[in-house]
Amino acid sequence: MADGRAQRDDDTPVQAGDGAPAGGVQRALGLTLASALVWGVAHLWAGRRVAGMILLGLFGVLVIAGAVTTALFRGDLVRLALQPSWLSAFAVGLLVLALVWVTVVIRSYQVARPDDLPTGARTAGAVTVTVLCFAVAVPFTWAAHSTYVARDTLTSIFRSGDSNGRPVNTADPWNGQSRVNVLLLGGDAAPNRVGVRTDSMTLASVDTETGDTVLLGLPRNLENFHLPPGPARDRFPYGFTGDGAGTPGLLNEVYQYAEEHPDLVPGVTKNQRGPELLKATISGILHQRVDYYVLVDMRGFADIVDAIGGVKIRIPEDILYSRENRVLKAGYRTLSGKEALWYGRSRTNSDDYTRMGRQKCLMRAVAQQADPQTVLTKFDRLAAATKRAISTDIPQELLPAFMSLSGKVKNGAKIDSLQFVPPLISTGDPDFALIRRLAAEAVAGGPAKPSTTPSSSPTASASRSPNTTGGPSSSATKPPQSKPVSLAATCPS
Q1: Within 10 Å of residue 232's Cβ, how many Cβ atoms?
Q2: Most confident option among 71-80, 411-420, 435-444
Q3: 486 found inside a domain
Q4: Residues 153 and 256 reside in one and the same domain
Q5: How far apart are CA 480 and CA 104, in angstroms?
Q6: What phi and psi values does residue 53 have, to the nearest 5 degrees?
Q7: Which of 109-113, 155-159, 281-285, 485-489 has the highest mean pLDDT?
């Protein structure tokens, strides 16, 4: 076979296509398919041993390198997959590998194909090889495209460097702290509304060793709080009054007020003024560090839910669409993005505080159901929705550390929730000493004791945040929740 020809039983050489052109093209295609799976098979059959061994050796190196890298450096692969420069290199590498693989397929067919094929067999062979080339190239092209989309998503959402543009110390991502505190915000931006009101504000304090998390929820209608020292405190020395007329402002107004008044946060760029002032304000209210923030636009959140195919959740009682006079029926439901938005935002027959609890349960359900298979199969749509929905100041360099931490949170870590709502506090006249003490105890994991400081009536701010139906608030009859409770226990299942 050294000269690439077939042999008869009497050792008389014949051309591979003699007397059986159909069999010749079938054998050539079979060898080409084998070479697409293992490089060099067709070349070795044709007697081109040097080229065949080189191709086989290269293929073996690729397989071994891939297996060893996956087995020994899986953690590093995750880290590299979250770095835009490596994603760019990987995408280019995939395209180059696809080009090489297609070249091997084409050349293998040329080597194995008989020279005297009829026109029909030659055409059929060429078409079949073309289809095989597409079959080889499509997975690589899809992977390269997905890699590019991932890079574009990362660079669109996460900046490089800290808030001042300085390099981040990735060797100590948490700056020696045992916990990292991330402010989770839900904004209500919409085409028919001006600005952003942060109707959902929760500080997630995460133990960096165990992933155990405490969620500290603040109500949107909290009043009589102070802004941080500096230009903001100078403007409002006796507490925030957003309208400037002496009426107490609400906590959910701080974000947009800062965006409209850059002098309150000098040196901070547009679209970061609101987050910076709100982070500092909530840090003062809770007496807890606020390291980073993540803002999820509510309409964008609906797009994320649709991108993962809906969210499964149990609704304990019917929830009315307040504007459309439709009902989310009680029971196990798979909610669309729009329905999930109403589930999290509706105050009909309930109140702000019941809604806060539903929002946390909704976030928990989405996080649980956004499994790797769902993310991979719907990656493009999910990435596009995420770019529209999320803004944050978490640096790109810390993404590997946060990815590792999120794995701990998702895989068995304890998640507790403490909401500072009536009757635990009065939103119109908050007991900030009580809020700070309970927050400190919740984060430290110590026992919380009943407050000895009297609070004013929970209805003090009713005029600023009325029940939309005029009915009784479901939280008014419940005993105060003065210590964190498990989110798994409080969310319907």
Answers
A1: 21
A2: 435-444
A3: no
A4: no
A5: 71
A6: -65, -35
A7: 281-285
3-state secondary structure of 220: coil
User: In this predicted structure, what is the pLDDT of residue 475?
Assistant: 38
Give the HSE-up count for residue 208: Cα atoms under 13 Å, Cβ half-sphere: 14
* Residue, of 451 and 49, whose pLDDT is higher: 49
CB 287 within 8 A of CB 444: no
Sequence-ordered list of residues with C-beta below 8 angstroms from that of 45, at least 6 positions apart, any chain: 1, 31, 112
Residue 490 lies in a domain: no
Length of the chain: 493
Count up the domains in the chain and report the number: 2
Instruction: State whether 114 and 199 are in the same domain.
Output: no
Q: Which two tokens stand for residue 246?
A: 């002496």
Amino acid at 348: T
Query: Cα–Cα distance between 78 and 68 in angstroms, integer?
Result: 15
CA distance 34 to 36: 5
Residue 191's pLDDT is what? 52
Report CA dihedral (280, 157, 419, 427) to the nearest 10 degrees. 50
Report CA-CA distances (Å) from 437 to 166, 415, 433: 34, 20, 6
Domain housing 348: 179-209+219-412
Shared domain for 135 and 226, answered yes or no, is no
Residues 302 and 248 in one domain: yes
Using one digit for the tens of pLDDT, what is the confidence trace for 63-82? 999 888 888 777 677 777 77
Helix (H, G, I), strand (E, B) or coil at 312: strand
| Single-letter amino acid, residue 91 | A
- Return the bridge partners of 419, or none: 217
Place of tokens 């500072």: 420
CATH number of the domain that residue 289 is part of: 3.40.630.190
Residue type, 85: S
pLDDT band at 168 (very low <50, low <70, confident <90, very high): confident
Residues 196 and 133 in one domain: no
Give CA torsion, residues 295, 297, 300, 304, to 10 deg.
40
Q: How far apart are CA 293 and CA 185, in angstroms?
A: 7
Residues 123, 186 share a domain: no
Give percent of the chain with pLDDT exceeding 90.
42
Residue from 208, 186, 120 nearest 401 by CA: 208
Tokens of 219: 């109500």
Same domain assignment for residues 277 and 314:
yes
Distance of CA 300 to the CA centre of its chain: 12
Q: Is residue 465 part of a domain?
A: no
